[in-house]
Specification:
Layout lengths: L5 H35 L13 E2 L2 E2 L4 H20 L10 E4 L3 E6 L2 E9 L4 H11 L2 E10 L3 E10 L7 H17 L1
Antiparallel strand pairs: 1-2, 3-4, 4-5, 5-7, 6-7
């Protein structure tokens, strides 16, 4: 049976902790580089530095954590080169409003706010207009009291035909406005 003295155990534990600190340092640097790349839209690939091979003058042993970190780093760098630069920023909101309708569009999604006096079948009419224009509802919120009804709709257009996304949403909002005015 093999027994190690306390000094050997403590020494190995210290070496292991130093290896983990090197791995943490490398991963934090990789994280900072990624955040910097995403923030400024740089198109260069992400390559983290290799972990230090010497720590306080003593060689750092190659552990499975170091090997795993290096493998993940190489996969991340390869994925970054294949994917190109960071993801494009989201499209800005464009907002249009009429007396009882507000339309905010970003990309293929929109937020539609409808406010009308309380009358029968208004919600059905609004939903039929959205269906007619092939606009899908992601979420919807309905508020009403004895005098008015308010509908808040998050919508999405899947495939655009001959009209642009904005024009399609504007056409639907215009048609809703005609239904509400009746």
């Amino acid at each position: 049976m093999w027994q190690a003295d306390k000094a050997t155990i403590v020494g190995e534990a210290v070496d292991y902790i130093k290896t983990l600190e090197g791995t943490i340092h490398m991963l934090e640097k990789l994280k900072m580089e990624r955040m910097h790349t995403q923030q400024f839209g740089a198109s260069s690939s992400i390559v983290a530095p290799a972990p230090p091979s010497m720590c306080h003058g003593t060689p750092t042993p190659q552990t499975r954590e170091t090997t795993l970190a290096n493998t993940v780093n190489s996969w991340s760098a390869q994925h970054a080169m294949e994917a190109g630069s960071a993801a494009p920023p989201p499209a800005p909101f464009q907002t249009w409003s009429a007396p009882n309708i507000t339309l905010s569009v970003t990309g293929n999604e929109a937020f539609i706010g409808v406010r009308t006096s309380r009358q029968p079948c208004v919600l059905t009419k609004v939903l039929s207009v959205l269906e007619k224009h092939c606009i899908d509802i992601v979420t919807m919120s309905i508020s009403s009291d004895q005098n008015q009804s308010m509908f808040y709709i998050q919508a999405r257009i899947g495939a655009v035909s001959t009209m642009t996304v904005e024009d399609k949403y504007k056409a639907a909002a215009s048609e809703m406005l005609q239904w509400i005015a009746k």
